[in-house]
Amino acid sequence: MIRTACPHDCPSACVLEVERLSPARIGRVRGSASYDYTAGTCCAKVARYAERVHHPGRLAQPLARLGAKGEGRFAPIAWGEALDRIAAAFRAAAARHGPEAVWPYHSGGTLGVLSRWGIDRLRHVMGYSRQKSTICVTPAESGWKAGIGAARGSDPRRLAEADLILMWGGNPVATQVNLMSHIQAARKRRGAKLVVIDAYRSPSVEAADLGLVLRPGTDAALALALMAAALEAGVADRDFLARHTDWSPEVEAHLRRHSIPWAAEVTGLAVAEIEALARLYVGTPRLFLRAGVGFSRHRNGAATMHAVSCLAALTGAWAREGGGAFFYALEGWGLDTRLAWASDRIDPRVRVLDQSRIGAVLNGEPAALMGGPPVTAMLIQNANSAEVAPDSHAVRRGLAREDLFLAVHEQFLTPTAAFADIVLPATTFLEQDDIMMGLGHTALTVAPRVIAPQAEARSNHAVVQGLAARLGAEHPGFGMSDVEILDATLRASGHGGWAAAVEAGFLPVAVDIPSGTDFAGFPQPDGRFRFQPDWAALGPYGAEMPRLPSYWQKLEWAGPETPFRLITPPARSFLNTSFTETPGSRKREGAPRLRVNPRDAARLGIADGGRVRIGNARGALTMAAMLFEGVLEGVLALEGIAPSDAFPEGIGVNSLVGADPVAPAGGVAFHDIAVWLRPAE
Ligand code: SF4
């Protein structure tokens, strides 16, 4: 067994043990017990990784487009010619409109220091358009930072000592199995209670001691009523509030105005359900708040995350043993990224395009282009924007532009790759060396290569180096192998070298906010949590946000035309669109099924398993209905992301999602979708 680490778009970044059957073939994959967060567990989809890495559909050699854009007809070409053509297209685009016409684009298909962000080395040195990565966590991150001050939290392993674990808006049973094993240990050892709050009855809601299903986007109303109950019960920690927050009589008077019956009306929860949760919150000082990101993917998502984060501050949970709060560790890794990302060559004058607004950028909307030139050449790595980015019809119109040169470096011929002029075959994590940041915990996990690259696949690093050589890009990082850069990066960051990191398997990094008796304040300039955030300072859309913790009614309101609210939580066997190509995951997920409350179904004449259509001004989709008591009336849930070819329209659910940026700093309201629902003709 060879030890490595998972690169997929999941906060666990598991340390893995992979059976190497030959220099080019793997067998079993399992979580490693050598790191106590992974704790010997990994998800089923990665445990079956042999079917992905050895999949007959893996891209084997570079391809050049023959057919129309999006048609998916290609002819093989040699690597040298493919890179020459990309470099020539980048040179031509830069000569005509300036270097900002070239937009290297990446997303979270792989999260390695080199395999995700190494493309930035080329971007920064060449002066190509920069990228603001907003598609995943920006609303959650903004809301968390608003109060706490940084996208960090307590070490999540502390929840082993908690008495109440409040899992707000996440589904660890399906998406973070390691977290669930820590939660189960706390329940078993200490009798800790698990509360899960979500907008549909997920497997985690079912596994909880108290599971609450509310209307999408109304979570802040519940948090406000809980805080009012705590104030009423006299359990607000006055000493903590005075020493570590900006608490004021105005904040207190505001919070006290939110009653449980009001919250029941807004959220769709029963009064008795909120009272049950309030009893737990009020009666349990050792609270560990584990916030997920799903509930933040609404137009009011950042304000909602802030309101939820106030819960741990109000009762002083941060300063209690076993208490604290965590969302993601996005900051404070202390990595010296000058070699890997050429972060020493960032030119602040170069525009920063919003990753989530790729449709608007490629369709030439002046605001999305920030007044600069059109984007006429792209290299996409780790991203399947034709299915994953919002407003997919607009994205596809942009990708289909005849004057756009598109290169896509991928493991499979995704719908995005089908639009490419040049497709490059990519290695998987098992075929390259890298380091992962464990965003759901506090360690770097180390991912050395396990097997040789399959067929002609090359790593992201190799592609960046190959293009840099052709484009005359000059930076010390371009002359180095992947291991040389990783070794130098670790040494410059004070983490020893690559060989020692491989030997250890993971490197603990102090990215947490010390809590319990070690609590010494929040990472705000004055050390104080903000009940009254300065939203305008957090992003360009912050000025309109409420000053105090609030249920901000800025949602895509369901009206007479589109009376249903649709959410798209992650399916257990897919990870965005990764794993939608593997037969095991496809078989487990089956065809897309829209969860519909039985009373809505009866009213509309929809039978269990019957064909239905949902839609709004952006598009429409057809699928089977599944009658499900686990969504409230007026709410629909479609687990995903099911691949486009699972729908007769040939496009997936993100075609219904708006790409308007979420306040204060951007991001996508993936679960804030107003739609109509009808039986399919
Ligand atoms: S749980 Fe997440 S990090 Fe762990 S193996 Fe699965 S996808 Fe990878």
TrEMBL record:
Family annotation (Gene3D superfamilies): 2.40.40.20, 3.40.50.740, ADC-like domains (2.20.25.90), Dimethylsulfoxide Reductase, domain 2 (3.40.228.10), Formate dehydrogenase/DMSO reductase (3.30.2070.10)
Residues making up the signal peptide according to the UniProt record: none
PROSITE patterns documented for this protein: 4FE4S_MOW_BIS_MGD, MOLYBDOPTERIN_PROK_2
Alphabetized GO MF terms: iron-sulfur cluster binding; metal ion binding; molybdopterin cofactor binding; oxidoreductase activity
SMART domains: Molybdop_Fe4S4
Transmembrane segments: none
Keywords recorded for this protein, A-Z: Iron, Iron-sulfur, Metal-binding, Molybdenum, Oxidoreductase
InterPro entries: Asp_de-COase-like_dom_sf, MoPterin_dinucl-bd_dom, Mopterin_OxRdtase, Mopterin_OxRdtase_4Fe-4S_dom, Mopterin_OxRdtase_prok_CS, Prok_Mopterin_Oxidored
Domain 4Fe-4S Mo/W bis-MGD-type: 1-57
Cofactor: Mo-bis(molybdopterin guanine dinucleotide)
Family stated for the protein in its record: Belongs to the prokaryotic molybdopterin-containing oxidoreductase family.
Protein name: Molybdopterin oxidoreductase family protein
Organism taxonomic ancestry: Bacteria, Pseudomonadati, Pseudomonadota, Alphaproteobacteria, Acetobacterales
